[in-house]
Amino acid sequence: xxxLPQDMYRELADAxxxxxxxxxxxxxxxYAWQPAMNLTNQKWIPRPAAVVxxxxxxxxxxxxxxxxxxxxxxxxxxxxxxxxxxxSQEGELQIDLRRMNRIIExxxxxxxxxxxxxxxxxxxxxxxMKKGLNCHIIGAGPNTSPLASATSGWGYGGTxxxxxxxxxxxxxxEWVLPxxxxxxxxxxxxxxxxxxxxxxxxxxxxxxRGFSGTQxxxxxxxxxxxxxxxxxxxxxxxxxxxxxxVKTEPPETEKMFFVVAPSFQKYADISYEIGNAEIAYWFCxxxxxxxxxxFMPRAGDRIFESKPLRALLKAFQxxxxxxxxxxxxxxxxxxxxxxxxxxxxxxxxxxxxxKAPGYGFWWWLMGVRSIPTALTFRAGGxxxxxxxxxxxxxxxxxxxxxxxxxxxxYIDQGFFKDDMSDIGWGGIYEGTANWGHCxxxxxxxxxxxxxxxxxxxxxxxxxTTVQHTLGLGLSNxxxxxxxxxxxxxxxxxxxxxxxxxxxxxNSVGDEQWYVPSIDEIEQEASSAEERR
Amino acid sequence: MNDLAALKNDMExxxxxxxxxxxxxxxxxxxxxxxxxxxxxxxxxxxxSGGGKLIAANSILEGRSxxxxxxxxxxxRCQLCGACQVSCQAYRDDIDLADVLLDLRARCxxxxxxxxxxxxxxxxxxxxxxxxxxxxxxRGAWAKDLDLLDINTQQVEVxxxxxxxYSYDEDLRQTVRNWVxxxxxxxxxxGAAGPExxxCGGRAFEMGYQGEMRNFAEDMIxxxxxxxASLLVTxxxxxxxxxxxxxxKNGLDPGVKILHAVEYADLxxxxxxxxxxxxxxxxxxxxxxxxxxRRGEIYKAGWSGSNKxxxxxxxxxxxxxxxxxxxxxxxxxxxGIDLVEMERIREYSWCCGAGGGVLxxxxxxxxxxxxxxxxxxRSVGAEAIVTACPWCERVFKDELKQSGDPMKVYDVIDLxxxxxxx
Lengths: 532, 422
Known about the structure:
The structure holds 2 protein chains of 2 kinds.
Chain A: H1 6-16, E1 21-22, H2 25-32, E2 50-52, H3 57-70, E3 74-77, E4 93-96, E5 103-107, E6 112-115, H4 121-129, E7 133-134, H5 146-151, H6 160-163, E8 170-176, E9 182-185, H7 205-208, E10 220-227, E11 229-230, E12 239-240, E13 247-248, E14 254-260, H8 264-276, E15 282-285, H9 288-295, H10 297-305, H11 307-314, E16 319-325, H12 329-345, E17 349-352, H13 359-368, H14 376-380, E18 382-387, E19 391-392, H15 393-412, E20 424-425, E21 435-436, E22 439-444, H16 451-467, H17 481-488, H18 492-503, H19 518-531
Parallel strand pairs in A: 2-4, 3-4
Antiparallel strand pairs in A: 1-2, 5-6, 6-10, 7-11, 8-9, 8-10, 12-13, 14-16, 14-17, 15-16, 18-22, 19-21, 20-22
Helix pairs in contact in A: 1-3, 8-15, 9-10, 15-16
Chain B: H1 8-12, H2 38-43, H3 50-61, H4 69-76, H5 83-89, H6 97-110, H7 116-128, E1 149-150, E2 158-160, H8 163-168, H9 173-185, E3 190-192, H10 202-206, H11 210-227, E4 231-234, H12 237-249, E5 257-260, H13 261-270, E6 282-286, H14 325-332, E7 337-340, H15 358-361, H16 363-379, E8 384-387, H17 390-403, E9 408-411, H18 412-419
Parallel strand pairs in B: 1-3, 2-3, 2-4, 4-5, 6-7, 6-8, 8-9
Helix pairs in contact in B: 3-6, 9-18, 13-14, 16-17
């Protein structure tokens, strides 16, 4: 096991306090167990050399400077879910940001909140609602960090229609660069408050996160202003229960529908129509078979064995859940009329959930707090997601169609749980923008040791996105993805590698989920040339 | 017992989502009171969380790491409050997190990693039949002049088991005596074992000395049987959990109906056999003791499959079937008392800090945990915290006294007694 140089450990302990650094193997293994996105047969990812718990930007700066001084790589994480938050090799320093957990400001008039890394979406949402506002919650769930997905990753939640997606929502950002300098992006860079990500002050949004974020490879984000959106529901909802037993009373100005389309194409058509009509707060494709698997894994296993029941579920394959939300009853009635008209014109079935038993359960769990997606871990113990590039929405739906064919082969070979294959999930962003994504989850039990098959599926899914010109699937970005995609996508990675070199001259930011410095890429290319 | 390896599949099922650190997501109502695990909230490293301990246990089983003094401290700086299991099982009902925590402690003991404060308690249990290091001969002093039936010589219908804390804690003496008076007022003839009453053994099990509990349990069960009782009533939440969960989980059948005193009081009020009087107006909040609430859920025996995903819900310890409504109903039945709820209640309640041997070994951490709960009570405008467990009462009272805080602490029975004029 690699450990930190003794003098480095002492410097960190002096800066943070002894209680905020550990080299105890069992403690560090708490950071080496990252099943999500660890698509190998290795149970553990590399164990860090030490773990540190900073509480302030100044402490993060001190840690990063110490790493530069000793040429030790680091990786920071916020809530710490999935392998991209952990080290990719032994000897690295893990920065756990959980002590940076404040909502610093919640600006009701300008609709944004300034948060630290360990604020979770549910906390932010609860506080925002008290002021008639709401935040975007990515599909992974309300336990995730809004700062992390806005600055460093990629995620979409069911309210994307009205709340965008993670990459659209950061405003001002405080960023400890890999060399230890603190950079404030956007308006905070000019001391003008947090309201804008693009000035007055430096705008480096493209470099900071670009298409899908750098997963913590370009320093540490210590504060981020997150865009908030209007919330018309109750400011302090009364909710009973914790999951399947949840009961609450949604207001009359919130109505929920199942919209069942007859085909992939029709589903794309109605999504465009709903976006263009500027109705609905939430509209997201959620095939019923996926719901059965998530909420009732035992029943699901039995149902999927029965041909007639499979056929019945298939009738609800192109199911979208729509939440209409508005400040007035009249407005919600108008939205319902428009939704009914769209459904009728496209041969869809509309089911009014608001009249169904347990409506409060659907409204709160799915429509508001975005909880069910986390249940994907329940059905098979683990899951991966594939396809899902943000594109024109009919292209996104085409991805779900292609994914269905591709995934079925791997279900047949026993690499994934049988879930009837199509559980393409996602929707359009920001109303009339007409773009969106539809990712395909696949559930499995990683304890079965069949990682090779799942890696092949990811390769296949990447290949089919290229074949069908569907764009770059988000989940097709495992470590080292640039090697495959870079040459196929106009060598984008070379630009990233130059950014890496400029921002991280000592290459101390773990680059596994991003790209190495241009020097390393060129050196490797040159060595390969010599070998030839 | 101590079969950590049998739970390896559960450990490897952890996806490290960290739900175990938070109040179940559907119930997060604010930034301030969103956390549910005192251990990781106080000490921060992931290893302190429920999931972190699953990972540490797996690491130890695989020989990647071993139990050291530092690891033992992490394992024991945990109240075993069970909140992590509730939050985990909302999503991952195929993982029995609480079982891993218990067996990890047993592993510590079997490898000789023990805390001196816990050893003292175990010694006291062995020598004096109580957890507090006090003389067995003094155990029945709390019941002096109450003229309870003596189960050592008489047959009884209802057996009253005071538990160690109520038997010895003079500060809480009036509370336990009030319970007896209350049941007498309802016409219930109670019997007790007096100085012969002994510890239920639950604390020993929780601290990792799993075998010790069996000795106490066998003695307890024999005593219950000899008394002829058909109902055992206890005002102690720890004892209640031991009788309802730990005994049956370990194949020990008390052979008698078990009720917590507050459940029994609620029943008697609803039957019209008890009528609370009127209290001076007071706004109170109810603190769910972990051992009466989520961990007071009866042990759900009878499932023996291997795929826990296929285990029917009726066999899962989700914590939602603990005793939550009876104490609230009793409080609401007292005119003048205004019951307001805190944010973290019922199965997702924040712990008082006393459990799992923390009060004895790490009193500063117990006090830190209690302080967070006191702040939560204050945030809803409560003048008093009402609870139904002597351990919760002890740690709250100590913390309030130390800080000079005017917040009051009552047992449910204290309110009824006050409604009757004291």
